[in-house]
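re: ur msg from earlier - yeah i can do the magnesium ion complex, just paste it... oh wait u already did. ok heres what im feeding in:
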Amino acid sequence: MKFSKMFIPTTKEMPKDATLPSHQYLVRAGFINQVGAGIYNFMPLGKIVLEKIRNIVKSELDEAGCNEVQLGFVTPIELWEQSGRASKMGLEMLRIKDRKNGEFVLSPTNEEAMVELVKNRVTSYKDLPINLYQINTKFRDEGRPRFGLLRGREFLMKDGYSFHENEEDMIREFHLMEETYKKIFTKLGLDFRVVEADSGAIGGTGSKEFHVLANSGEDTIVVCKSCEYGANIEAASRQPKEVKGKKEKTKEKVLTPDVTSIEDVAKFLDVEASQTIKAVIKKAVYEETQKVVVFFVRGDDELEETKATNAVNALELIDASEDDIKDAGLVAGYVGVFDLPKEVVFVIDNELQNEDNLICGSNEENYHLTGVDLKELENAKYDDLVAVQAGDKCKCCGGELIHTKGIEVGHIFQLGTKYSAAMNANFLDRNGKAKPFVMGTYGIGVSRLIAAVIEQHHDEKGMLWTKETAPFMVDIIVSNAKNSDELSFAEKLYNGLSKYKIDTILDDRVDARYGFKMGDFELIGFPYGVIIGKKLSDGIVEIVDRKTNTKTEVKKEDVVSKLLELID
Ligand code: ATP
Ligand code: MG
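and the outut:
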């Protein structure tokens, strides 16, 4: 491809809202442009990279026996009503009406549509298993679209769905998909980690996420320094914390005027924060109502919001206002586990179960309780509520857990029969009995991957594409395109590289100076450049390695073989 024939509108201008390198460089290098909040056009270079990633995803999935299909992007609301999700999806799902007042949805995901496709077409266990996927546009009306392609509203996702006669077979496929995803992300040249995950609104039991490790990642990942354990903080667990240095306190109500924070309580009563119980008051949002809920964790622990949301089965948790707290009959700063108002739902962290000699609020202004024994508390609900902290111990090996940041690029779920049962999608099993399909579901953020590659591979000059994702592997930079010797050698080289199927772009622009061409080479981040300049008359050209920024002089007849060596 010739640079002069391509639409590559590079610019020095920085997009106003772009804080991350991937966002800045992809816009500046003319890969994408923003149309509206979270909506992007892909220009030629962006489109080439998108296709490369799509092809890798497709070839590995096809190899694993999956079938590509393409579903309609617009789905009728009836499908979402059948599964019960119409009322659960919240504001992320964009609904539209047609001229006949029929209601439709811009698909944020496609479980329902895929179940509908298979229903009554796959009717017997003999037709199972089957794994269908598409690589298609999704729309989610994200509250905060940002970071360019990392969190768009319109984006490209690979979504796959598998159908099985039983759980065992679904789990087999789940493992196959895990291995397939690892191959895909390895091929893309990414440093990634597979971690345990929360299943979120999609539902189901086991789930794993694939994270590209990058400081800019929105997710916090907990990993063990000594073993393979890794989990999203939303799902991470640890060895129960050992509490040391507890002081013996009698069971009594003590006056603690104006002592409301954990820090102050611990200081006032001369104990470690770990001997106290912290109350976190939230408002749980449900389909029809909202109510104040209280979570109790150890004083030196923090509440993990996703775990807490799941513990009370809420759609989300929001902050409770002072009025909310008062109206619920709670005394801020003095909330404790005994004698809470009857209507207030509360959950206590698992690690506090059966523990005694604790300190908590008394539910009465200015008083705390000491010597609290949780065994005396009847009908309490316990659940895992805490955010694993750096330095906690791994439950698998006792090693040290640390925090790192990740960009979620894939998520696989063991879904079960949630959607097939709700939508009456059955098959006849080996005994002739009708049963709902057991399903798995598997997503990859295809457009997000473009940005993830760059978050992990860039420098202060621009992008550094990996070999499998580079729009072109080699950029032949003709220093002076008016010089016919330079241009004709460049063309010869271009044809030579084409024979070896090396994607090459020829920067033959007559109006652009050498420095400008080099600037584009660095910003765009082609892995290799060949500079054809004055030394050509001595039979010498230069090969530039974009990543290491090294230039090597090479005899002109050796360029192809040298590049082949480097690319291998
Ligand atoms: P996130 O937690 O980042 O919002 P999610 O859990 O909502 O992701 P899934 O529903 O599992 O995501 O979707 C599958 C994949 O689609 C994700 O792993 C991610 O790579 C990608 N994805 C999700 N939301 C977006 C978005 N707004 N923009 C770009 N890609 C996205
Ligand atoms: Mg999301």
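cool cool. The pocket of adenosine-5'-triphosphate (ligand 1) is lined by residues 109, 140, 142, 151-152, 155, 157, 200, 408-411, 443, 445, 447-448 (CB under 6 Å). ping me if u need the other ligands too
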